[in-house]
Each structure stands twice: as C-alpha cells, then as structure tokens.
Amino acid sequence: QRAQAEGCWLALFDPEGARRARERVALEGELRQALGEGGLVLHYQPVLDLRSGQVAGAEALARWPHPSRGAVSPEVFIPLAEERGLIRELDRYVLRRALGEAAALPGWVAVNLSAQSFQEPGLPRFLRESLERSGVRPGELVLEITERTLADPRSAQPVLQRLKELGVRVAVDDFGTGYSSLSYLRSFPLDHLKIDRSFVRGIGRHPEDEAVLRGILSLAGSLGLECVAEGVETAEQAEWLRREGCALAQGYHFARPMPPEHLATLARERG
Ligand code: C2E
Ligand code: MG
Ligand code: MG
Ligand code: MG
C-alpha cells in the first residue's frame, strides 16, 4: 500500500522513479510467489581447510532462477526482502532447504541470517524443530550473522546464548567492515570470523591490508576463533593466508557457488 502511494506521488514528478517503484512491487510479488512454490534454489560454495586442502564445509547461497527475467541477483532480492518484510520467511526457507540437502554435502553447512531473523523470538524453536526433522547434528550447522546484527550487545547476548545451548555454530560474516567495537568478541560465544574480501584483495598489493589481516588472525587465535578468509581469488592469496595461519578459506580460486549435486560429486572425487 505504502509502495503504491509512493508510486502515485512519484508519477507526478518523476516517471522514471515511478516505473522503478512499480517494478519493485512486481518483483516483490514474484518473490513471495517463488517462496511459496519452492522457486528459490541454493547453491553451495565450498570452504577449504588451507592445511589439508579438504572441503571443511559449504556456504548456502540463495539463487533465484526467475522464469522470465533470468537469474535475479541476491544483491537485488535480499535487500528487497529485507525492506518488504519477507526476509524472515526467506531465511527460514533457506534454512529448511539447506538442512534437507546437508546430508549429501561434505562437512558442515553455513546459512546466512539477516538481523531481522536473528532477532525473531521464534528462531531457536524453529531451529530445534528443523534440526530434529532433518536429522542434521546441530554442530554441523553454522549461522552467519554480520557485525551489524551484534551491534546491540544486550539484545544479541541472550540470543547467542540460546543458539549455543542448541549446539549450532555462529560465524561473524564480512568481519572488519561493520562498525562494531571489538569488545563484544570477548563475551560472545562465537565460532568463526569470516574476514571480508576487501582485505583479502589487498594481499601482495597493500601492506596496510596485510597488517589488518595479521591483526585479525592474531586476535582470533588468542580468542579461540577460527578464521575463514572470503573472496580468495588467486593462488598467491591462498598461499599467503595459509602461511599466516588462517585455517579456512573460500573463493573463486577454489570454486564458485554450485548446485548441491555438483558439490557432492566434487567432494567424492577428492576422496
Ligand atoms: P556473503 O554471505 O558475504 O556471501 C559471499 C558472497 O561472495 C556471495 O555472493 C559469493 O558468491 C561471493 N563470492 C564468493 N567467492 C568470491 C570471490 O572469490 N570473489 C568475489 N568477488 N565474490 C565471491 P552472492 O551469492 O551474490 O550473495 C551476496 C550476499 O547476499 C551474501 O553475501 C549474503 O549476505 C546475501 N545472501 C545470500 N543468500 C542469502 C540468504 O539465504 N539469506 C540472507 N539473509 N542473505 C543471503
Ligand atoms: Mg554434511
Ligand atoms: Mg555469508
Ligand atoms: Mg561475507
């Protein structure tokens, strides 16, 4: 309704804006429909153990093969879902689906959780029931949340506590890009830090990025957190990270996100 009202208002002064607004309303309806009909699929990007070269787990990434528009990017439909109140439904959809597919995949499975989903009071119960139904062990599920989600420590702490009691693991995604204070790292029960790819990009080029990376690795090490480097695109970056003691990495250098059956095959071939 609000979007429609905005649309009328815009149409008077800004026909191009009005067209975009109508387009978003249409896309929102189609996303709602896709969620109802199983129209979103998941691709999985393997996360590698840098020492052994084995697949440690995989991150589930939502994909929308739209019947007429072609693939719609998550950079478009995730923000849309967040704005239009659809993200909790989307995250639950992805969780259910990833847990259903997890048995056939190597290692743990990581799922992204928006702030709205993390704060929803029904989350722990939904997780417990979905884990039971799927038979996936809680320790095989990693929930990725961003620093933003942890920005208010007093509301985040009890949720993290309940997740810990369930036995699932928690990763901080895009670490280093938010505006969090580092103090929360001491008290929160966290398992992985996913170092944002903007730092990884600077390896071999910007000594400042390398300094930040070393700092994060050292901090994580002393707090008992495992680091995952994101967006590793070259052999040089992978080698640097391994040398500096980074445990895990993902990125196009190893593999792009792929359908679950491809990842299962890849893991079988590598033994
Ligand atoms: P993210 O969680 O940080 O996921 C990593 C993104 O980096 C993915 O983009 C992945 O395809 C991309 N990527 C992986 N390796 C490389 C690399 O070597 N180089 C570069 N340049 N990029 C790489 P994608 O799939 O487009 O997803 C974008 C974002 O959308 C994700 O960022 C995540 O925040 C969000 N997202 C995706 N699926 C879900 C979901 O089911 N729920 C929620 N709440 N968010 C999701
Ligand atoms: Mg598995
Ligand atoms: Mg992620
Ligand atoms: Mg990330």
TrEMBL record:
Residues 24-271 form the EAL domain. One of its GO terms (biological process) is regulation of DNA-templated transcription. This is Putative signaling protein. It comes from Calidithermus terrae. The chain holds residues 336 to 606 of 606 of the full protein.
